[in-house]
Amino acid sequence: MKRCTAFQLRGILQLSILKTATASGAVLDIQAHSLALEIQFCCSYLVYAVKMDNDQQQQNLAQSSPQAVDEHELFMELSENDFLFEKKKKLLEVKGFDPKIKVKIKSDCSIKLVKSVLEEMLQMARIIHSDEVDLYFGGIDAFRPVGFCSPRNELESLRSILSIVDSSVSNGEQIRPKVFQDLRNATLDMIHEFGSNIGKDAQILANWNLDREKCLLQWGKSNGVKARLDIAYIEGAGRGAIAREDLTVGDIALEIPVSIIISEDLVHKTNMFPVLEKVEGISSETMLLLWSMKEKHDINSKFKVYFDALPEAFNTGLSFGIEAVMALDGTLLLDEIVQAKEHLRSQYDDLVPSLCNEHPDIFPPEVYTWDEFLWACELWYSNSMKVMFSDGKVRTCLIPIAGFLNHSISPHIMHYGRVDSATNSLKFPLTRSCRAGEECYLSYGNLSSSHLITFYGFLPKGENPYDVIPLDIDLSEVDSTEEAHPISNWSTHMVRGTWLSDNHAILHYGLPPPLLEHLRQARSLMLQSNITAQENLESELEILEDLQSTFDAMMQNLGEREPLVSENCDWDVKLALDFKDLQRRIISSIVTSCHAGRKLVEHELQNCTNNG
Question: Per the database record, which ranges form the SET domain (predicted)?
């Protein structure tokens, strides 16, 4: 069988216009013709119900007995609509869990037993709420508990358990049993503990002029906005939303009435819509982009205060100058930014000049310039959200004031994409607490730092689990059918910083298990039973040598680290160099892990020789 000895990095251009709460893929055309942008819809991977025995249901309905029930059942079910259903189903089974999970808990449980039940539920929820990156790097070990995967996964898992417990009230119980209250309190304690290791007061720059932002908040209040947040200029982050008071799990930090949400309905009421609807293949998002280019100059616009509060420049990767782009040499981000700008320029050239020539009264050439088009693209890339309205339709929108909420890999707000039909408003509830004076963060989605730089203009704080480097590996000669390897089969492979792994022992090395398994299969290590232990170790050593050689070459391709004097460096160059340093750190960790792994294998080989 052919040896697998070399890899090539592959650039994957991912364009997105949406801040989203959870990750799942979909494709949307934002520009006319065929610029495909990846967007992510909110979707739930947990179907839950709380069920009691029939006797207790009858007791509650009749309110005839205050006696506590002997046993309750909590159900967590993996949705078959999850595109990772088969992998998660097999993983649950490997761990000894049924995909239609039933957890029994007695009414007289001690606090210690309640916490034990919570830990079991949390392990199951971590699997159910895993995304592709969590599963790929998580590893398969039937003898180890399902541990912490990522901040997003942990918060989502705890939130889902809290929802299950809270739903008990709506399933027939007039009074929540004490054991459910104990379980709820234990879950909240875990959420608070998680947040206490993260939260800190924002460093507010008091001398910054925020008159336009204050005007926007006042405009919002007069139009029905309910906010428990203030806007401040934060050191190292720009504008952000600060908690005005202590907020706890479930509190609504921000509520925006539908009447001030900017959506495609506004375009339909303008004189440009009859023209745009005749353009073949144009999307509603492209119409909104063109509408916003003109609307920001309208002094009579209902949204004038909102447009006045927007920055003159968004400073995303799409605005990188030549020096910053050149500083990215050797990284995937260089190709991503170049390709993204080429796409946008092509879309502009194909659409806008003809609109200006044929309808100059509606599309004035002085308004529809390339610079203005790029500004509008950056506005929609960095500020738009996907919202499901009461009619069931999902629309791309701008949400005034909500745009001040910055992104974090450990956000306070994760679910915010559905209009509450009772209040006809969009609410932003907290998944974890936020103290007064602390910056309140949103989740834009499970995004890599390269993506966040390109379309949002920043590197996230903390360790981003989605900073992965994709690998291009020949899969043609390896048996990788889903039937043969339902859990570990992957059609693509990737690496990330090995400091995120908690297993650096021999045969693991902090490297992703699917990658190692694939390379072993390529050498027939897992397909033949007559290979000796020494032959296995020798092949293991070859794998690590090949990997180290590949990533040594990648490190050389990045070049030497350049000294950076921040006060003399433009924002885009500094951001580019910071990203390049991140890439060096990731690749260096892989090289170090391969080197340490080789030492472990060589030691075992020496033992085999001595014992032979």
Answer: 227-445
